Amino acid sequence: MSSQIAKKINSLREKIRENDHKYYVLAQPSISDRDYDKLIKELEALEAKHPELITADSPTQRVGSDLTKEFKTVEHKIPMLSLSNTYSEDELYDFDRRNKEGISAGEKIEYVVELKIDGASVSINYVNGILKTAATRGDGTAGEEITNNVKTIKSVPLIIKKDNSVKYKLKDFEVRGEIFMKVKDFENLNKEREKRGEKVFANPRNSTAGTLKLQDPKVVAKRPLNIFVYNLVSLEEELKSQEENLNTLKKLGFKVNEHFKKCSSIDEVIDTCHKFEKIREKLEYEIDGAVIKVNLIKQQNKLGSIAKAPRWAVAFKFKSKQAVTKIKDITWQVGRTGAVTPVAELEPKFLAGSTISRATLHNFDEIVRKDIRIGDTVVIEKGGDVIPKVVEVNLKERPSGSRKTKPPENCPVCGSKLFKPENEVAYYCENTECPDQVKGRIEHFASRGAMDIEGLGESLIDLFVEESFLKTYADIYKMKKIKADLMAIERLGEKSVTNLINSIEKSKEKTFDKVLFALGIRYVGSGAAKKLAAHFKSMDRLIEASEEDITSVHEIGESISKSVKRFLSDKHNRKNIEALKKAGLKFSFAESKTAIIKDNFFKDKTFVLTGSLLNYTREDAEEKIIHFGGNTSSSVSKKTDYVIAGEKAGSKLDKAKSLGVKILDEAAFTKKISEINS
User: What pTM was computed for the model?
Assistant: First the structure.
């Protein structure tokens, strides 16, 4: 009896998988929704009676019930490299020339041209035919595990199809792809959110990326996510070509974009790119270019990679989409640094996946240069298909009633007198209590790249500032004392407030460089914060440092040093820093170092990096050295313990050899890290 039930369950699963493939991958449904639902309900009923027969690859297991409290780190079998961008035919000819120079004389190169889908990259690992893990790109070497969320996407097979024509065993392999939303699905999602009074998403790509990081797979399952798979990765098999890989992926049941073409010359590649650009408007999903890859895998391997990009592949970026609309008004907004920026208020226009009603005008000089006036008909585009901007004014259609605008003398939010520094185009509000600055600084402080306080988003920050719960970002760490007041807010409950406070407490684990970046010092991005933290080791030493001391740090210029000194000399900022110290945030590397800083190869040694590394950016490598207790320097001297030399290492490598300094290549550097982690 049990064997008959098992057969029935397996038969139902196979029917459901087959129909999922026809509906979600091939777009060729063969049964009605009602009949499909009957199959699902029958399978659910049988599995409920016989839970011992439930398997992870069952269609009923796509949507899990457990929340993902933490996204674990997953290492990619082969790094997920970013692509270098090209924007002209000449750059594609250069790409072809470099490839021909990089392979044996007389060898022919073929290319495969594919659409560049505008979504979120994912790597999915299958073991013995069953989906094991899925991960984001991350830093290229490792990403965050999002398995539970990816399993909810019905165009992603939980178990691969068997096809005897596939000549590879593929016991353990990865597929890479792009998760996206169709434009229509995205628009419908936004309409539903608008009806519920929720904030609408900016564009399909952002909503896709945000959905993949949600904690509840049940919510993810309700979002219209889709996927195109474009790469097959195996360390066990000797794969032949990209064209064969795409056809193999289709046979295994994956959704592969139909628009790809093998080309025998770079001229054919260019012609194909232009043809793809022409069909752009007819597609159901967003693309922003074409991807060109050397077809043969053995040639790809020979050409290799530089820094974080392969030599054998590039992206050909299409021109930004444009639209024509009118400027209804020009307003001014205040950012977290106090910069007051002009914004064009537009007649709404749908462009590149979203409805545009506002566009940046950058600064007043830009308004004068382009002679932009209220009432003008203008051409707008998304810079890099992300940030809307005004490209030009249609002077022929300028109405007689168009009005010039003037820069404000006072802050449009708090009314304070504005300040314009010499040799700068921007105007600044210097009132640190200005509500819009406060909101912007808190939003930056809580953002993922800084303190990563989950749940403290733009809408809650606006509410908390307006209700006077938050006046500075230091007030964030006092919120646990007013938990009862927060729970009294209509839209908040005990669970959401508890989760927020837990996330605030967890943020105290962030390292000194993250805290320094979170403070929002003008010109100090995450890279500069790492360099300053690594050099000065503590906030106290940074406060004591002179402008000259700060400028002496590798790649830290005069603008950054002046900004740091100005920020740290401000009494209000110093007061916030002291409050954050009392709250338990880490303001020195000594506080940031964990138990991993025990005796190891890197501890207390000084390293200099030179040349390009394949699997690390300069910042990544420096961060790892510092994490293990080492130090980095920008110049080679007798005090240098090791020079880590990548491709095209220059004078620093020569100096290291002349001084007898020990040299590590990238492989040796990676091995040392692996030995500590193992």
Answer: 0.63
